Amino acid sequence: MEYKVEKLKVNYKTLEEFKRFKEYGLQELSMLEDLQANIIDNDSESPFYGIYFGDLLVARMSLYKVDAKFNRYFEPPHDFLELWKLEVIPDYQGKGYGKALVEFAKKMNLPIRTNARMKSKDFWKKMGFESVTYDMARDRGENPLFWFPENFSQKEI
Amino acid sequence: MEYKVEKLKVNYKTLEEFKRFKEYGLQELSMLEDLQANIIDNDSESPFYGIYFGDLLVARMSLYKVDAKFNRYFEPPHDFLELWKLEVIPDYQGKGYGKALVEFAKKMNLPIRTNARMKSKDFWKKMGFESVTYDMARDRGENPLFWFPENFSQKEI
Description:
Oligomer: homodimer
Shape of chain A: globular
Helix content of chain A: 10-25%
Radius of gyration of chain A: 16 Å
Protein backbone atom coordinates (compact mmCIF):
# COMPACT_ATOMS: atom_id res chain seq x y z
CA MET A 1 0.00 0.00 0.00
CA GLU A 2 1.13 3.53 -0.82
CA TYR A 3 0.91 6.19 1.84
CA LYS A 4 1.10 9.90 1.20
CA VAL A 5 3.83 11.58 3.22
CA GLU A 6 3.24 15.28 3.90
CA LYS A 7 5.46 18.02 5.25
CA LEU A 8 3.68 19.23 8.38
CA LYS A 9 3.01 22.90 9.00
CA VAL A 10 3.26 24.46 12.45
CA ASN A 11 -0.23 25.38 13.58
CA TYR A 12 -2.43 24.78 16.61
CA LYS A 13 -4.17 21.81 14.99
CA THR A 14 -0.90 19.97 14.25
CA LEU A 15 0.53 20.77 17.68
CA GLU A 16 -2.63 19.40 19.29
CA GLU A 17 -2.28 16.23 17.21
CA PHE A 18 1.34 15.86 18.33
CA LYS A 19 0.12 15.32 21.90
CA ARG A 20 -1.02 11.85 20.86
CA PHE A 21 2.62 10.87 20.32
CA LYS A 22 4.74 9.55 23.17
CA GLU A 23 7.80 11.57 22.17
CA TYR A 24 6.09 14.91 22.78
CA GLY A 25 8.76 17.11 24.33
CA LEU A 26 10.65 20.37 24.43
CA GLN A 27 10.67 20.62 20.63
CA GLU A 28 6.86 20.70 20.45
CA LEU A 29 6.50 22.93 23.51
CA SER A 30 8.93 25.37 21.96
CA MET A 31 6.97 25.44 18.68
CA LEU A 32 3.79 26.13 20.64
CA GLU A 33 5.39 28.99 22.57
CA ASP A 34 6.83 30.50 19.39
CA LEU A 35 3.38 30.41 17.80
CA GLN A 36 1.68 31.92 20.86
CA ALA A 37 4.26 34.70 21.09
CA ASN A 38 4.03 35.38 17.34
CA ILE A 39 7.69 34.52 16.95
CA ILE A 40 6.65 32.26 14.09
CA ASP A 41 3.62 32.53 11.83
CA ASN A 42 0.75 30.11 11.69
CA ASP A 43 1.44 27.39 9.09
CA SER A 44 5.22 27.91 9.21
CA GLU A 45 7.47 25.18 7.89
CA SER A 46 8.31 22.48 10.41
CA PRO A 47 10.95 19.73 10.38
CA PHE A 48 8.12 17.18 10.70
CA TYR A 49 6.72 14.89 8.06
CA GLY A 50 3.61 12.85 8.66
CA ILE A 51 0.98 10.50 7.26
CA TYR A 52 -2.75 11.04 7.74
CA PHE A 53 -5.39 8.34 7.85
CA GLY A 54 -8.44 10.39 6.92
CA ASP A 55 -8.21 13.36 9.27
CA LEU A 56 -6.02 11.64 11.80
CA LEU A 57 -2.25 12.09 11.96
CA VAL A 58 -1.11 8.49 12.53
CA ALA A 59 2.65 8.68 11.94
CA ARG A 60 5.36 11.29 12.01
CA MET A 61 9.12 11.89 11.97
CA SER A 62 11.52 14.84 12.14
CA LEU A 63 14.24 15.35 9.56
CA TYR A 64 17.09 17.85 9.69
CA LYS A 65 19.98 18.28 7.30
CA VAL A 66 23.26 18.36 9.21
CA ASP A 67 26.01 20.28 7.48
CA ALA A 68 29.12 18.31 6.49
CA LYS A 69 31.25 20.49 8.75
CA PHE A 70 29.47 19.02 11.80
CA ASN A 71 29.98 15.49 10.54
CA ARG A 72 32.01 13.43 13.00
CA TYR A 73 31.06 10.10 11.48
CA PHE A 74 32.66 9.58 8.11
CA GLU A 75 35.40 10.68 5.74
CA PRO A 76 35.29 12.67 3.55
CA PRO A 77 32.75 14.81 5.45
CA HIS A 78 29.37 15.00 3.75
CA ASP A 79 25.97 16.42 4.63
CA PHE A 80 23.62 13.92 6.20
CA LEU A 81 20.06 13.79 7.43
CA GLU A 82 19.27 13.38 11.10
CA LEU A 83 16.02 11.48 11.61
CA TRP A 84 14.27 11.52 14.98
CA LYS A 85 10.83 11.11 16.57
CA LEU A 86 9.79 8.44 14.11
CA GLU A 87 6.59 7.20 15.69
CA VAL A 88 3.32 5.57 14.73
CA ILE A 89 0.34 5.86 17.12
CA PRO A 90 -0.59 2.52 18.74
CA ASP A 91 -3.65 1.38 16.72
CA TYR A 92 -1.84 1.99 13.44
CA GLN A 93 1.41 0.16 14.11
CA GLY A 94 2.55 -2.80 12.00
CA LYS A 95 0.87 -1.44 8.85
CA GLY A 96 3.93 0.00 7.11
CA TYR A 97 3.54 3.64 8.16
CA GLY A 98 6.99 3.79 9.77
CA LYS A 99 8.55 2.13 6.76
CA ALA A 100 6.83 4.60 4.41
CA LEU A 101 8.32 7.55 6.31
CA VAL A 102 11.82 6.08 6.26
CA GLU A 103 11.56 5.28 2.53
CA PHE A 104 10.51 8.89 1.99
CA ALA A 105 13.63 10.11 3.79
CA LYS A 106 15.85 7.77 1.76
CA LYS A 107 14.64 9.35 -1.48
CA MET A 108 16.50 12.53 -0.52
CA ASN A 109 19.62 10.57 -1.37
CA LEU A 110 21.70 11.61 1.62
CA PRO A 111 23.12 9.42 4.39
CA ILE A 112 20.68 9.20 7.29
CA ARG A 113 21.61 9.03 10.95
CA THR A 114 19.25 8.01 13.70
CA ASN A 115 19.59 7.21 17.39
CA ALA A 116 17.76 3.92 17.88
CA ARG A 117 16.05 2.40 20.86
CA MET A 118 17.50 -1.05 21.36
CA LYS A 119 14.10 -2.70 21.02
CA SER A 120 13.55 -1.03 17.64
CA LYS A 121 16.87 -2.22 16.26
CA ASP A 122 15.33 -5.03 14.19
CA PHE A 123 13.15 -2.51 12.39
CA TRP A 124 16.15 -0.33 11.52
CA LYS A 125 18.16 -3.33 10.39
CA LYS A 126 15.35 -4.34 8.03
CA MET A 127 15.41 -0.76 6.71
CA GLY A 128 19.12 -1.15 5.89
CA PHE A 129 20.57 0.85 8.78
CA GLU A 130 23.83 -0.25 10.37
CA SER A 131 25.67 0.44 13.62
CA VAL A 132 28.80 2.55 13.84
CA THR A 133 31.72 1.91 16.15
CA TYR A 134 30.79 3.46 19.48
CA ASP A 135 32.80 6.51 20.49
CA MET A 136 31.99 7.83 23.94
CA ALA A 137 33.01 11.44 23.43
CA ARG A 138 30.87 11.61 20.32
CA ASP A 139 27.99 9.27 21.06
CA ARG A 140 27.52 9.62 24.85
CA GLY A 141 25.23 6.68 25.38
CA GLU A 142 23.39 6.96 22.09
CA ASN A 143 22.91 4.06 19.68
CA PRO A 144 23.68 5.72 16.35
CA LEU A 145 22.65 3.91 13.18
CA PHE A 146 23.37 4.98 9.61
CA TRP A 147 21.92 4.31 6.23
CA PHE A 148 23.88 5.16 3.09
CA PRO A 149 22.56 5.73 -0.43
CA GLU A 150 23.69 3.20 -3.02
CA ASN A 151 27.13 3.91 -4.48
CA PHE A 152 27.87 6.28 -1.63
CA SER A 153 31.49 5.71 -0.79
CA GLN A 154 32.68 6.64 2.66
CA LYS A 155 35.10 5.60 5.28
CA GLU A 156 33.76 5.49 8.78
CA ILE A 157 35.87 7.28 11.36
CA MET B 1 19.98 7.57 54.21
CA GLU B 2 23.50 7.74 52.84
CA TYR B 3 24.38 5.59 49.87
CA LYS B 4 27.90 4.83 48.74
CA VAL B 5 28.50 5.79 45.12
CA GLU B 6 31.27 3.83 43.40
CA LYS B 7 33.06 4.27 40.11
CA LEU B 8 32.36 1.08 38.18
CA LYS B 9 35.12 -0.94 36.55
CA VAL B 10 34.68 -2.63 33.19
CA ASN B 11 34.62 -6.36 33.77
CA TYR B 12 32.39 -9.30 32.87
CA LYS B 13 30.57 -9.16 36.20
CA THR B 14 29.62 -5.48 35.82
CA LEU B 15 28.63 -5.92 32.18
CA GLU B 16 26.40 -8.84 33.15
CA GLU B 17 24.79 -6.65 35.84
CA PHE B 18 24.17 -3.90 33.27
CA LYS B 19 21.77 -6.24 31.43
CA ARG B 20 19.26 -5.66 34.23
CA PHE B 21 18.98 -2.01 33.16
CA LYS B 22 16.55 -0.94 30.46
CA GLU B 23 19.02 1.44 28.83
CA TYR B 24 21.42 -1.35 27.86
CA GLY B 25 22.70 -0.42 24.42
CA LEU B 26 25.58 0.09 22.03
CA GLN B 27 27.76 1.58 24.78
CA GLU B 28 27.62 -1.63 26.86
CA LEU B 29 27.92 -3.90 23.83
CA SER B 30 30.98 -1.98 22.73
CA MET B 31 32.58 -2.33 26.19
CA LEU B 32 31.91 -6.08 26.07
CA GLU B 33 33.48 -6.41 22.64
CA ASP B 34 36.53 -4.38 23.65
CA LEU B 35 36.99 -6.64 26.66
CA GLN B 36 36.58 -9.83 24.63
CA ALA B 37 39.05 -8.62 22.00
CA ASN B 38 41.54 -7.51 24.67
CA ILE B 39 41.29 -3.94 23.42
CA ILE B 40 40.74 -2.92 27.02
CA ASP B 41 41.92 -4.67 30.17
CA ASN B 42 39.70 -6.29 32.74
CA ASP B 43 38.79 -3.75 35.45
CA SER B 44 39.45 -0.75 33.20
CA GLU B 45 37.96 2.60 34.14
CA SER B 46 34.41 3.16 32.92
CA PRO B 47 32.28 6.31 32.72
CA PHE B 48 29.74 4.58 34.98
CA TYR B 49 29.05 5.20 38.63
CA GLY B 50 26.77 2.96 40.64
CA ILE B 51 25.29 2.05 44.00
CA TYR B 52 25.22 -1.49 45.33
CA PHE B 53 22.66 -2.92 47.72
CA GLY B 54 24.66 -5.81 49.13
CA ASP B 55 26.01 -7.55 46.04
CA LEU B 56 23.39 -6.15 43.70
CA LEU B 57 23.97 -3.13 41.47
CA VAL B 58 20.69 -1.24 41.92
CA ALA B 59 21.44 2.16 40.34
CA ARG B 60 23.85 3.60 37.83
CA MET B 61 24.66 6.62 35.68
CA SER B 62 27.28 7.65 33.11
CA LEU B 63 29.25 10.86 33.43
CA TYR B 64 31.52 12.42 30.85
CA LYS B 65 33.35 15.75 30.99
CA VAL B 66 32.69 17.72 27.82
CA ASP B 67 35.42 20.16 26.93
CA ALA B 68 34.51 23.85 26.87
CA LYS B 69 35.35 24.04 23.18
CA PHE B 70 32.40 21.76 22.38
CA ASN B 71 30.06 23.85 24.50
CA ARG B 72 27.18 25.22 22.45
CA TYR B 73 25.06 26.12 25.46
CA PHE B 74 26.48 29.04 27.38
CA GLU B 75 28.85 31.98 27.33
CA PRO B 76 31.66 32.13 28.21
CA PRO B 77 32.32 28.51 27.21
CA HIS B 78 33.09 26.27 30.16
CA ASP B 79 33.60 22.54 30.67
CA PHE B 80 30.47 20.70 31.71
CA LEU B 81 29.45 17.19 32.68
CA GLU B 82 27.16 15.17 30.49
CA LEU B 83 25.03 12.80 32.55
CA TRP B 84 23.18 9.91 30.91
CA LYS B 85 21.75 6.46 31.64
CA LEU B 86 20.66 7.44 35.13
CA GLU B 87 18.55 4.46 36.10
CA VAL B 88 17.40 2.58 39.19
CA ILE B 89 16.19 -1.01 38.80
CA PRO B 90 12.44 -1.38 39.43
CA ASP B 91 12.27 -2.82 42.98
CA TYR B 92 14.62 -0.12 44.27
CA GLN B 93 12.96 2.98 42.84
CA GLY B 94 11.61 5.76 45.06
CA LYS B 95 14.25 5.17 47.73
CA GLY B 96 16.61 8.02 46.88
CA TYR B 97 19.16 6.08 44.81
CA GLY B 98 18.73 8.31 41.74
CA LYS B 99 18.99 11.41 43.89
CA ALA B 100 22.17 10.11 45.53
CA LEU B 101 23.81 9.65 42.13
CA VAL B 102 22.86 13.13 40.95
CA GLU B 103 24.08 14.68 44.22
CA PHE B 104 27.35 12.86 43.71
CA ALA B 105 27.71 14.39 40.23
CA LYS B 106 26.93 17.87 41.58
CA LYS B 107 29.86 17.64 44.00
CA MET B 108 32.21 17.81 41.02
CA ASN B 109 31.22 21.47 40.84
CA LEU B 110 30.71 21.70 37.09
CA PRO B 111 27.52 22.48 35.17
CA ILE B 112 25.66 19.27 34.33
CA ARG B 113 23.70 18.63 31.17
CA THR B 114 21.23 15.81 30.74
CA ASN B 115 18.68 14.84 28.10
CA ALA B 116 15.47 14.16 30.04
CA ARG B 117 12.50 11.97 29.30
CA MET B 118 9.42 14.14 29.59
CA LYS B 119 7.94 11.91 32.27
CA SER B 120 11.06 12.27 34.42
CA LYS B 121 11.00 16.05 34.24
CA ASP B 122 9.57 16.49 37.73
CA PHE B 123 12.48 14.55 39.17
CA TRP B 124 15.00 16.76 37.40
CA LYS B 125 13.18 19.90 38.45
CA LYS B 126 13.32 18.77 42.08
CA MET B 127 17.06 18.23 41.56
CA GLY B 128 17.42 21.86 40.44
CA PHE B 129 17.74 21.27 36.69
CA GLU B 130 16.23 23.75 34.26
CA SER B 131 15.30 23.77 30.57
CA VAL B 132 17.20 25.67 27.94
CA THR B 133 15.69 27.41 24.94
CA TYR B 134 15.21 24.75 22.28
CA ASP B 135 17.45 25.08 19.23
CA MET B 136 16.74 22.55 16.52
CA ALA B 137 20.17 22.49 14.90
CA ARG B 138 21.76 21.88 18.28
CA ASP B 139 19.16 19.87 20.16
CA ARG B 140 17.45 17.80 17.41
CA GLY B 141 14.51 16.57 19.40
CA GLU B 142 16.31 16.25 22.72
CA ASN B 143 15.06 17.77 25.95
CA PRO B 144 18.24 19.24 27.39
CA LEU B 145 18.26 20.24 31.05
CA PHE B 146 21.06 21.97 32.93
CA TRP B 147 22.12 22.33 36.50
CA PHE B 148 24.61 25.03 37.50
CA PRO B 149 26.81 25.15 40.59
CA GLU B 150 26.09 27.98 43.00
CA ASN B 151 27.71 31.28 42.05
CA PHE B 152 28.32 29.99 38.56
CA SER B 153 27.65 32.93 36.30
CA GLN B 154 26.76 32.24 32.70
CA LYS B 155 24.68 33.57 29.89
CA GLU B 156 22.71 31.02 27.97
CA ILE B 157 23.07 31.19 24.20
